[in-house]
Amino acid sequence: MFDIIRYTSEKVQEWNAFVATSKNGTFLFNRGYMDYHSHRFEDCSLMFYRDGSLFAVMPANAEGETWCSHRGLTYGGVVMQESATAEKIQQLFRELNEYLRRAGFGRVVYKTVPHIFHRIPAEEDWYSLFSICQARLVDRSLSSAIDLQRPLRWNRDRKYGVNKAFANGVLVGESDNWAGFWEVLTTNLKNKYGARPVHTLEEIELLHSRFPENIRLFVAEKDGVILGGTVIYLTDTVVHSQYISASAEGKRLRVIDLLFDYLLHDRQWQARYFDFGTSNEDDGRVLVEPLIYQKEGFGGRGVCYDWYEWSL
Fold it and tell me: Of 52, 72, 119, 175, which one's alpha carbon is 20 to 30 angstroms from that of 204?
């Protein structure tokens, strides 16, 4: 039996300490990250105790009668201690469903943590989605990742881009000029997609100040002007490229190719995987081919980011 309680700010230290030692948690589940946009969501995160000890946590929010893996996070689900076994996680889901029914919820939307972010194998919840919840897959987005222990060859087009950018005097490296890159990113998204970054400049600077070792900026520039860049989210197992963008001049000079040549060949990472992020629209049903072509040209191959749902 589990004691299930709703998270409150009084539990912040216990929550964060648990996430840091879990087998599938990352700094995105730290409350310092989750709560930067707490005003946008009705937090309904849960904590699961077994024999008086914290066994698991679930970042979540409520949307009417729907209980969701936290909408403000790229991935989610149950964050487990290392001792979590299949039988215990099955029991956890049985009791979770009963708890949510009693609380008046009628539907669950659940995100899994992609396997590349697991410190040790941690797919017991995936099995319980099938065996206990009879969950339905509703969103599968395809990311592109490189196993840094077994990298693939780059295609010829990417190598050509590296040489072109280098020949034109483009310089790459880590930067603190968040405002400069955000101008490039915002302009590019607006012109190409009519969209804007998920994070405002103020939000990403706040998050960087809270997690300076985990959230870092790398740029390509010429004559002191930023032409492109990417934000890196660094976890124990994954170097994740959160944003990739270049100005019109940066695209002409192929600065992104040179930037990733630096990140993948010159930087030394302790993590095993480099993840370029997803390349989809319409809940994963549409593959954006030019976007994934670029990532696969660097040697990236498929990793799925899944969402499930079930009725209570």
Answer: 119
